[in-house]
Amino acid sequence: MPKPVAEDYQSRPQKPDDFDAFWEGVQHQAAAIPLEPAFVPDPLRSSAEIEVFQVFYTSLDQVRVAAWYCRPTRRSARTPAILYTPGYQMDPPIPKEWAAKGYCALSVAPRGKLRSMQQFNPGYPNLLTYNITDRHTYAYRGFYMDAWRGIDVLLACPEVDPERLGVTGTSQGGGLTITTAAMRSEVRAAAAGAPYLCGYMDAIALTHTYPYEEINDYIRAHPASRQAVESTLAYFDGINFADRITCPIIVNIGLQDNVCPPETGYALFRNIRSADKRLYAYDGHGHDAGRVRHAPIVDRFFAQHLLSGR
Amino acid sequence: MAQIPSDFHVYWQQTHDALAVYPACPEVEVLPMRSTEFATLYRVRLTSVGPYRLSAYLSIPVGSGPFPAIYYTPKYQSVLEIIPQGTANLQRSRYITLALASRGQRTSDTPYAAMFPGLLTDGITQAATYPFRGIVADSVRGLSYLLTRPELDATRVLVVGNDLALITAALQPGATHVVSTPALFYDTIALAAQTTAYPLEEINDYLRAFPAHTEAVRQTLSYYDLRAFAPRVTAHALLMAGAPGSLLSATTLAPLEAALHGQVTMHDSEQSNYKDGLYSEQWMAAQCGITDVQAILPEHWRS
Fold first, then answer.
1. Which of A91, A189, A199, A214 could disulfide-pair with A166, CB 3.0 to 4.6 Å?
2. With bands split at pLDDT 50, 70 and 90, how would you rate the model's confidence at B59?
3. ipTM of the complex
4. Do the annotations mark residue A88 as ligand-binding?
5. Matching CATH number, A19-307, of 3.40.50.300, 2.60.40.1510, 3.40.50.1820, 2.40.50.100
6. Where is the Acetyl xylan esterase domain positioned along the sequence (chain A) (predicted)?
7. pTM (whole model) above 0.80
């Protein structure tokens, strides 16, 4: 049997003193850029039950970002909505399954992803370390903002109830769920699976698998840059965003996760400020984080917070 | 199952012949950033049918070989990984690994950039020009290139991937073992009708939009059904089935298991990528005579 995981694992990176100021500055820059959302019907992917749109919007640095939007054809005038955030290597899916459950759903493809790579394409592997010594140009500065702006896209949809927005994803999508819930007060419920981008510098010591291994590769090639890397990543670490989360949130982790070390999941969970939070730790599971067993829990969680009582 | 086309073997022989027109012309370049004290990583460029220039990652262990090899056939995604996400980097200390981006995937996306979803039904009504015909040729080219490496122990060559792993092992001699997780080309139309999940949902989308094309789609897919390739697979195969009751369960795959020519091991998914991943890592190591598999597992999988 694998060794037990230290639930009291202490994450090493400290939150920079100017963390909030840094992100306020980035948000200020983004706020000056018009969203300019475009919704293009996709008849090939649409059915009698679900309408599918290709979506495009503008984000930081004027990068045009793609997304998929699905909505139930039979819906109320104000429908709850889910923002779905993608994994590191996955191609963003068409979120029909969420529409089938009664939500409007936006699946974002932040910069560098397929359909969002015309202006920014560092590739894979490479995204994780692209400009990693400079927080002002690090890849995830724009990447995070692209995900957060998905909330603005949903708010631009007249059929979406702005009081019933949720966010979810696993792996990188779990990390983006954390930062989105932290930075967008409109989010009413969040479900993060196997969160990546939380405890970066911890993870590269706890595991030697890609994608985190990209950082070890970089530091091995540029040993003098280690301090700069650590400094940058402290601004992007989901653990440092967690104390801004106040909405109801559930987090699931796998205790044999070979991609996102479960120790970092525990450290993240402790830092989440919300009083309404619950951790599901699945023994015998890896990066799937108990997905099959956990999926009904996520469904019930969002149904309770977004679907019910309206 | 759809009838195996009478010209099935002709179709694939023509593909093979078209590939043979173009030599691989490999270019091999060291990638220092991804090289370690235990393995050197190379970017390899190869020519395939078309002609079409492909990209791949080749990792060679440090030390004197020969080494067993894992050939990771192209996945159904845009991204090319050096080794699959979550695999211990130390796997590269014991095995040669080759991961190929077929046409349409990143780093092999000029001039053809595939969409995901989208690739599965792109041009699907024309078997002669269906993009997967080229993709299969690409995958075959990758394995044939791997077999030329002087560091290789030709008695231990694993081909690992989805449907393409089995198809490649069927069309290109040299694989001693194959690990396949069928996803795309097993009774495709029938299974698509039972799911709303991508990638098979692409078939449903397409047939809903173009119902008159159903027979043409069925005809094209008949050249790709794994059961038609199975009699040509002589390598020892590990079939990674879905969980009991799932779409691609061992029960569903039983006809494939029966049709494979070589020895077959079927593994039922335990719906845990830790348990399933550990099983396949241990299976591969055992087949290759690697006795200290613990040393090349991810940290959180080690006992």
1. A189
2. very high
3. 0.96
4. yes
5. 3.40.50.1820
6. 7-292
7. yes
